[in-house]
Amino acid sequence: MWQLHQFPLCPFSRKLRLLMGEKAVAYELVRENPWEARDAFWQLNPAGRTPVLHDPARRVTLCDSQAICEFFEETVERVPMISGNAMQRAEIRRLTALFDENFYHDVTEPALHEKMKKRLVLRQPPDGQVLRQMGRLLHGHLDYIDWLVDTRQWLAGPQLSLADLTCAAHLSVVDYLGAVDWRGHEQAQGWYMVMKSRPSFRPLLSEKMDGLPPPREYASLDL
User: Fold this and answer.
1) Which residues on adjacent β-strands are paired with residue 55?
2) Burial per residue of 189-204, b for 16 or more beta-carbon CB atoms within 10 angstroms, e otherwise
3) Which of 125, 127, 167, 210 has its Cα between 20 and 30 A from that of 20?
4) pTM score, two decimals?
C-alpha cells in the first residue's frame, strides 16, 4: 500500500488526498512535519516538502503534489480529474496552478505561518498586519471564485476536476485556521459546502492538528 507522508494542514497533501479519495486509491498516512527536517524524510524527498508518496515494497517514491496527481491521472482510469478536450484540460491546469501558486502565496502560506507555525513551532504571537493583508487578498480570490461559480457548473467547466480539489484543499486549511470571512461570497461558500459534502472530504474534516483545534463550524456541512 502507498504511504503518504504529510501533515494535517499541508494544502498540497490535502489536494492529493482528495484526488486519491475520488479515485478510490488506498493509502496510509505517515505524519511528517517538514520543519523538523528529519534525515529519513529528506532522503525520500531532497526538497524537504510534503507530500511524498512512498511504496516500500516496490521501492517507489513520488514527490510534488502536481506530479503525483498527474501520475494517478495516467495510471488510474476511473474518475478522471483532468478531462475534456485540450482547451478544457489546459483550463483545469491553469486554475490548479493559480490556486497552488497565487492563492498559496497570498493566503494559505501566511495563514499557516501566522496561525500555525508561530503558535506551535516559534512560540510567537501572530502579526495582525500580515493577517489583515491576507484577508484583503483572500477577498479578491473569493471574488474570482464567485465569478467562476456563477459562470460554470464547476470551477474549470462542466465536470468536477483537479481545479476544484486544489481550491478546496487550500480553502480547507484557511477554514481550519478560522481565517475565512465568507460575507459577500455566497456563491463561493455554497460551492465549498458542496465540496465538503463529498465522501473524499470526510477524512480531512475529521483530522486534527495537535495543539491547534479548528473552529466549531469547520466540520459543519450546513454553514
Assistant:
1) 60
2) bebbebbbeeebbeeb
3) 210
4) 0.96
